[in-house]
Design goal:
Rossmann fold, 12 helices, 313 residues, 11 strands, alpha/beta, 2 domains, five-stranded mixed beta sheet, six-stranded parallel beta sheet
Amino acid sequence: MSAVTTPVLDMRARFYADLGPLLDAHPDVDVVLAVIGSGQMAPVTARHPGRVIDVGIREQAMIGVAGGLALAGRRPIVHTYAPFLVERPYEQLKLDLGHQDVGAVLVSIGSSFDASAEGRTHQAPADVALVSALPGWTVHVPGHADEVTALLQAEAATDRRVYLRLSRQRNAQPQPTDGRVHLVRDVASGLDGAGHAPLVLAVGPMLDTVLAASADLPVRVAYTATPHPLDAETLRALAGPQPVLTVVEPYLEGTSAAAVAAALADRPARVQHVGVPRDVELRRYGTPRDHAAAHGLDAAGVRRRIAALLDPP
């Protein structure tokens, strides 16, 4: 008899597939929507009447409802596109969840440019920076559908404020989801006097791009699916006493800069952050691949940045 395996789906499809079993296992979990996802969740809604709440196109109210559910002892999972989940109801995140000190799991789709064909309204490269600016939040940026399942199951059993950022871009293989930084690829050449080669930290779905970009470069590659709060202890251990570090993140460039600087504050470090540039506003639709290339987040662009840090002028 063959073993039962979980189908390999994209992150969004896996999230919808996970919700039914999740609600079965956790009687205190409710799902709050603002239209997006209601069609995909129809079987879950039928199986769990009253526990999937669609407030209509009212994203501020969606967060307010989640806050009320949390105050009543429920565990809300809130879902829509990133700009409608973070940017539009940002005041409600601050007040209805944060100021009341209650938890929820916010699950976004769209990432930075997944919905590029929908225009700027559906793009949110600043979402992680915004959530990270609020106290008491944990941010997960998975790179594979299996990581989505693991993170969702773990966070459903907590009462924390969590932002889970899903993306169409994904890595070929899942990585650990324990909140730590993990070394994925080591090198034997390019070591400094203390035995530390330059390090590239890939966040979430950027890992395969980083691996391709640095395949023939003398750098080590590490990974995290939880950029906030950052695992400073492991980063310090991997970076060494004189760090040469590149952080590659699939959202606003420098989002992790303050956390990285704090982790390495006592060390003479050369650090660069590669992400969506802060001073670029693309006004053409294009595909997600077009946007990645335009922002230097494809393998060629990431390679240029890593190589420039290794061989400064």
